[in-house]
Fold these 4 entries.
Entry 1:
Amino acid sequence: MKITIYGDSLNKGYVKSFYYLESIGKIDRLRYFGTKPFYYTLSKLKNFRNYTFKDIIYSYIAPFILLFSDDIFIVSPPPYS
C-alpha cells in the first residue's frame, strides 16, 4: 500500500503512527508533503527555521504529484491547542 500525506505542517510528529506502520512493513511507501511552500522558502532565506531543500522543493511540486498519483491520499491538518 502506498500512502501520500498532504499536511499543513512539516512536523512529521503528527503522523507518527503512519511511520510506525511503514517501519513494520504494513505500508510500502509513505510520502509527506507540506502545503505552504512560500512560507518554507522565506523561513529558510531568513534563517527563521531551517527546512531542508528537499522539503521545500517537494512542497512546490506536491499538488502536481497528488493530481497524477494513484496512492491513497490523506489530508492532515495539524492540531491546534
Note: Helices lie at 16-23, 37-45, 53-67.
Entry 2:
Amino acid sequence: MGFCATVLASVVATASPANGSIVDVTSPTTSWTAILYGNNNPDPSNDQQTGSSEGDIVGNLNHPSVYTAFGDGNTPSLTDGVLGFRVRVGADVNPTGFKTALFVGIDGNADGALDLFIGVNNSGSADTIGLWNPGAGLNVSPSTTTIVSTPLLSYTETATNYNWTAVTAVNDPTVNGALDIDGGGKNDYFLSFSVAFADIVAQLSAKGITGFNENSTLSYVISTATQANSLNQDLNGVGKNYDPAFTWSNLGVLSSPMTPSGKPVIPEANSALIASLVTAAATAHRYLKNRRHRRGNAQD
C-alpha cells in the first residue's frame, strides 16, 4: 500500500459515526465520534476563564473532550435526521444539574468565521437547547464573536434530546478509571444533546450557505459560557491564557474538517507540493540510472 493510501486508510479508520435513525444521548462513547483537532490537542484542565469546574471542558490524549453523533433518519434524504454532541466537563457542582451554557459554533463554508451556534443554555430561568445567530462582528476570533442571546429556534430539554450524567465505565468503556481528569476531587460529567439536522440546514441556507447536507464539510469551535451572548468561559482546545484577537485556526481551537455525519475530510492535495515531489522523484530516478550506467562502464 502506498503512502497516500496508508494515510487515507488510517484517517478513515478513526471515524465510527453513529448512523442510526436517532441519536441516543445515553449511549456509550463507543457509539459516538470524537471531534479531532489538527494538532491532536486535548483541552487543559482548570482553564475556565470564570465560573466553576462545571464549565471546565476536560480531556486528554486518551479521553476526548468532545464527541458528535448523527442519526440519518433511515431515509434517502441527506438533510433530515438528528445531529448530537457530547462534551466532557469537570464536575457537577451544587445544586445538581448543568447550570451554565455550552455552544458549538459551526463554520459551514470554510471561511474561518462562525455561521451558526448550536447549544444548551441552562444559565437562566429557562433551560433550553437551541440554535443561535452569531453577533454582528467578524466572528473569526474570540474578540470578534458574540452571540445573539435570543435563540433562532429552541427545544425543550427531554430524555430523548438531553442528558447530563457522570462519566462511568458504562457510558465510557474506554475510561480505565479516569473519572476525574482535572483532579478536582469530583467525578467528570458528560453533557449530551441533539437537534434536528433539517433546522441546521435551513438556518445555514438562510445565511447563503445553500446545498448543505450530511456529507458537507464543516469545522467546529466549542466553548462554555456563563450566559447566552458570548464565549466567555472555557474555549475547547486551548489553555486559559491566550490572545483573544488570534483567529480560531491560529489558536488551534477550530476542529479538523469533517462531515455532520462524522466522516473525516481529507484535505485536497497541494498542487505545488505534488509537482515538487514528482520533480524530486524524477531527479532521483535519473541519478540512480546514471549511477548504474557509470558502474557498468567501470566494470567494463
Note: The chain has two domains: 15-251, 271-300.
Entry 3:
Amino acid sequence: MSLILDAGALIAIEREERTITRLMQQEVEARRAPITHGGVVGQVWRGGGRQARLARFLTTLLVVPLDEELGRSAGALLARTRTTDVVDAAVVLLARDGDWILTSDPDDLNPLVEAAGLHVDVIAV
C-alpha cells in the first residue's frame, strides 16, 4: 500500500494537522515514501521560511515527474470523465489498487478513480 498525496494533503502537512501527521509517522515507521508529482508541488510551493516544515517533508517524498507519458495518460483520463484538472488526473494515475489517495477534494478525485478502474481509498484530509 502506498499513500498518494494531492495538494490538499501537502497543505495539511504544512499546517501540522493531526490526522495527516499520524499517517506520515506510520509511513516513516514502515519505511515507505508517500508519492506525489511535480505538479502538486507547484500548486503549494511558494518558498521562504514559512514553508520550512513543508520543505523538510518534501525530502521524504517520492516526487514523480509530470512528464509527457503521465501528461498524455492524464489527458486521456480527463477526456473519459469530461473534466479538466490535469494535476488531479495525474495524482490518480500514480495510484495502484490498494493504495490510499489523501486529498482535500474527494468529490473531484472519485470520478477520476472510477474512470481509471482503480480500487483505492480516497481519504479526505
Note: DSSP finds seven helices and five strands in the chain.
Entry 4:
Amino acid sequence: MVPLRCGVSSDGGGGMGSGHLVVVLPGIGGSVLARGTDWDAEVVWDAGKRSVARLAFRSDRLGVDERLTPIGVTRSMKFMGFTVVPGYERLLSGLSMLGTLDPGHPGRPVPDADIVVVPYDFRFGIMAAAERLDAVVRARLEGLSPAERAGRVVVVAHSLGGLVARAWMGLVGQAGEERWRWCRALVSLGTPHRGAPKALDWVVNGAPLGLPGPTRLVREWPSVAELLPRYPAVRDVRVGDPTAEGAALYPYEMPVLGLGQRAREAYELHEQILEAWESMPRSGPEMVACIGWPHPTPDAAYWDGAKLTVVKERPSWLEARGWESDVGDGTVPGISAVPIEQDQDVDGPRRLPDRHIRLASADVVLELLRKYLEVEPPSKYRDPRRPRHAPSLGLDVEEVHAAGKAIPVSVIARETDPALGGQPVWARLTAADGSAVRVRLDPEGGVFRGVLPGRPPGLFGVRVDARAVPGVGDLTCADTVAVVDEGLAGG
C-alpha cells in the first residue's frame, strides 16, 4: 500500500479546513471486487453495464475459496442473488462537495483526499474488513502524533459497514492507541447492531425463490452469520401451536445443521464489540444511529422443528419497551439498528422515513458531517422541535420476485390519520428505461393494498404517493425490487 497522508494538515490547512478525515464504509455487496488492481483488473462483482436480466451474477465466482481485491463501491443498484445492493453515487456526490474524495481504488490513490471510501471484501466477515480499514486509516494518518490523531476521524457506514466500524474502534489497536481514540464520531445508517431475522431466513430457508447458487453463498459467507439476530428472536413451537409457551431461542441454540457453531462465534464477536464500547469513556466517539422506522420488517421467527417462519408482526414475547413504534426499514428492525449500550436512550437515534437501501444516501449524512466538520454554525443542525416520529408511509413489498408474477404492495400510514383523510394512494413501478405502470391502492382496515403487474427480469423502482394529506401534505416512500428469471439465477 502506498503511504498516504490525510489531505488536511495538522495545523488545519487545506481540504475542509477542519483537520478531520471522513471515512465511508459500504454495506454487504456494496464493494466492487476484482482480481488484481491494475487498470485491466477483472471485475468479479459489480456488473457495470451488464444486463440485470441475466442477473450479472454467477454465484460460483463469489465463493470463499478465493480472495478478491476491493477496488471501489457500487455506483448503481445491483441484485446480488439474495438481496438488492444500493448504489452509493448520490452519497459520494454529496460528500464531494465537502472536500476531496478518494473513491477507494488501491491502485489509484488520491493523496490529498480528506474523504476516503474504504471498500472491503464483504464475504469474509467483520474482523477481516476491520483490519483492512485499519490499514487504510493508519496510512492516512502516518506521521501524526497520538495527540494529532485524537478525534480526527469521522466514519459514515451503511448496514454491515457499521459493524465493521464498531469492531475497528473497539477491538483494534493496543493500549493508548485504541482506534476509538482517533474518532470523533460514527454515523451508522441502517446498521443491524442487534442483527436481522432476515439474515436468519436466508441461512435457514435459503435465498429468495430458492435460488441454489445464492443459497450456498449465504450459508458459507462469514459475514452473513455475523448479521444473525443477537437476541432470542426465535420461538420454539415444536409442540405445533404458535401460541404455546415455548422457549425463545438465540440462533446459535437452534438445532439446524451447520448453524450453531457459526452463529455462536458471531454472537461472541458481537459481545466483545459491545464490551469494548461499554468500556469507552463518555468523551469517546459519538455514536449516531440513523434508523428507518415506519416499514414492516422481519422481526422474529417461529421454529417448528422442520421449518422456520419469519414474521413481520412483532410478537408480545419479544419485548421492545419504548421502541414499539420503531418498526424498521424493511430489512433491519428499528430497535436492532440501535447499539445495545444505547437501548435506554429512546430519543438518541435519528429516525428516518427511508427503507434500508435508501438509507445509504440519506440527507442526514451531510447534515451531521457539517456539524462534525464545523462548516456550519450549530443553529443549522440543531432542531429541538423535531418530533421523534414524523408522519410517514410504511411500505411493505418483498425485494425479490419471479418474472411475470404479480407484485403485491401494501402501505400503512403512521403518525397521522390511518385513512389519510380519504386521499387516494398510488403505487408506481418504474423500469430502468423510465417506463412505468401505476395502480391505485385500496384501503382495507387501515392498510392500503394493491397488486403491481408482473414484469420481465430487472431492477424496478417502487414508489408510493399520497398527495395533500390533511394536516400533513404530501407523503412518499420508495424502494427497489428485483425481478428474477429463475432459470438464469443458477449456481
Note: Confidence is low (pLDDT under 50) at residues 1-17, 48-56.
